[in-house]
């Protein structure tokens, strides 16, 4: 059996301002740092073998801050595969390392022309229902941006080709990513329909924990997560 943990990043500075963020590389707010620490406390006894983040700083910060609480004795180190960082980030083999991989396929939905705009102001301009459909529907694109379906088609091939084989090997995996890339993964592993996925929300900084056994995922209850 293996364990998969999905962790949405803590609140960012733009989350606090109620702005569409998407691929804009905004860091965590102080509240988001606190959320990452609380997530780490809940996960402190989970011994991960590999960690995957998006390439966006709020996702990376959340992973690394949460792992500062981990009690399993491994040091999380970002893996670099090109340039001098690949050649010069060498170390003795006996150091217990938890590899952290930055993966663009795990990035948030690209919100196109909405990025940097206030969600409430857009609701007043275009109507709350239209903005809700842009944000939560499966196959409706915001102006110039990705739908959740687009995000799914970007994220799930990576999940199938990389994450599932690792779980099949018995490795415990942490994915620190975003509301929509994680909604895509949950849609896939829980077989949520296109019609039902708009109702599914992932809160910031709260881990979703799954056991992987016999080729299937079993979601742990909140009580089991604590």
TrEMBL record:
Family the UniProt entry places it in: Belongs to the phosphoglycerate mutase family. BPG-dependent PGAM subfamily.
Natural source organism: Hippea maritima (strain ATCC 700847 / DSM 10411 / MH2)
Gene name per UniProt: gpmA
PANTHER family tied to this protein: PHOSPHOGLYCERATE MUTASE
EC code(s) of this entry: 5.4.2.11
The keyword Isomerase belongs to this UniProt entry's keyword annotation: yes
Pathway per the UniProt entry: Carbohydrate degradation; glycolysis; pyruvate from D-glyceraldehyde 3-phosphate: step 3/5
Single GO term (MF): phosphoglycerate mutase activity
One GO term of the biological process aspect: gluconeogenesis
Active-site residues from the entry: 9, 108
Residues annotated for substrate binding in this entry: 8-15, 21-22, 58, 108-111, 119, 135-136, 179-180
Entry keyword Isomerase: yes
Pfam families given in the database record: His_Phos_1
Site (Transition state stabilizer): 178
Function: Catalyzes the interconversion of 2-phosphoglycerate and 3-phosphoglycerate.
Enzyme class of the recorded protein, top EC level: isomerase
Name assigned to this protein: 2,3-bisphosphoglycerate-dependent phosphoglycerate mutase
CDD domains in the cross-refs: HP_PGM_like
Reactions catalysed: (2R)-2-phosphoglycerate = (2R)-3-phosphoglycerate
Keywords: Gluconeogenesis, Glycolysis, Isomerase
SMART domains, A to Z: PGAM
């Amino acid at each position: 059996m293996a364990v998969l943990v999905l962790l949405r990043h803590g609140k960012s500075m733009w989350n606090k301002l109620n702005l569409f963020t998407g691929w804009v590389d905004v860091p965590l707010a102080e509240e988001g740092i606190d959320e990452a620490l609380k997530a780490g406390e809940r996960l402190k006894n989970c011994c991960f073998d590999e960690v995957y983040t998006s390439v966006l700083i709020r996702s990376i910060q959340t992973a690394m801050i949460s792992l500062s609480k981990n009690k399993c004795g491994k040091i999380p180190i970002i893996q670099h595969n090109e340039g001098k960082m690949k050649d010069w980030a060498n170390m003795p083999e006996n150091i217990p390392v938890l590899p952290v991989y930055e993966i663009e396929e795990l990035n948030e939905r690209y919100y196109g022309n909405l990025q940097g705009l206030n969600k409430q102001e857009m609701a007043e301009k275009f109507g709350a229902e239209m903005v809700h459909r842009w944000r939560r529907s499966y196959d409706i694109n915001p102006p110039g941006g990705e739908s959740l379906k687009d995000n799914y088609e970007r994220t799930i091939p990576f999940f199938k080709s990389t994450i599932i084989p690792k779980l099949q090997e018995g490795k415990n995996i942490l994915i620190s990513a975003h509301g929509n890339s994680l909604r895509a993964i949950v849609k896939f592993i829980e077989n949520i329909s296109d019609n039902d996925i708009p109702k599914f929300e992932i809160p910031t900084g709260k881990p979703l924990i799954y056991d992987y056994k016999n080729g299937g995922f079993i979601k742990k209850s909140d009580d089991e997560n604590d």
